[in-house]
Amino acid sequence: MSQNIQKVAIVTGGGSGLGLATSEKFVKEGIKTIIIGRDPQKLADAKAALGELIHPIVYDLSILNGIPDLVTSIQQKFGRIDILVNNAGINMKKELIDVSDEDFLQVINTNVLAVFAISREVSKVMITQQSGAIVMISSMAAKYGIPKVIAYTAAKSAIEGMTKAMAVELSPQGIRVNCVAPGFIVTEMSSKALNNDPERKNKVLGRTPMGFLGETMDVAEAAYYFASDASKYVTGASLAVDGGNSIGF
């Protein structure tokens, strides 16, 4: 794509955490960035902080049947979609035997089905352009077993598999699909969880060779790499951004 065309990105869950950091990076690189989320206040705060290149859309991606119209409206308004970062997701910490079918389905719905639905619809746009980059966000939960997150683990394992399947199908049409697998990153959510559980925090740091937690911008830089021409010959890859946690002992 020629450099004089301004790229358009969608970042789901772009109002906080990893999504906000990714949106911030994209804006710094001059990319028009549409952030989708459920919380109007978070999206408004992100817009206020990051400026005119941010375009917030309040939408709950678990409502699958509205996603085709959502993507069509984005294409009509912005003319193109060059990048999709599938960051939105939910977690649920429960003992395996306490997870109901409804609990499990709720996580799968947001973390897998919604990701599939928006990726499918955006792919249609990208196929007409014969170009695009889709970035999935996975997790250490897909790399090894973590207790009390069975549904989340299933969902993120599905994301890793979908990345490969989508890459094989879409790459011949100029669309690259890759995956970032964050390790333990300092966010409001993770800090709360780890600070309330010193034993878990020590375990995390103990098996992270670099010996400290990552920052949201570490993940954002990886997402930008996959979204940019720097990775033009990379597809179907999963990059652990984890300080070595997934290979640590």
Automatic annotation (TrEMBL):
Q: Which residues form a coiled coil?
A: none
Report the InterPro entries cross-referenced here: NAD(P)-bd_dom_sf, Sc_DH/Rdtase_CS, SDR_fam
Keyword Oxidoreductase assigned to the entry: answer is: yes
**Which UniProt key words apply to this protein?**
Oxidoreductase
Instruction: Provide the leader sequence positions.
Output: none
Which superkingdom is the protein from?
Bacteria
Gene Ontology MF terms in the entry: oxidoreductase activity, acting on the CH-OH group of donors, NAD or NADP as acceptor
Q: Which family is this sequence assigned to?
A: Belongs to the short-chain dehydrogenases/reductases (SDR) family.
Full protein name:
NAD(P)-dependent dehydrogenase, short-chain alcohol dehydrogenase family
- Please tell me the species this chain comes from: Belliella pelovolcani
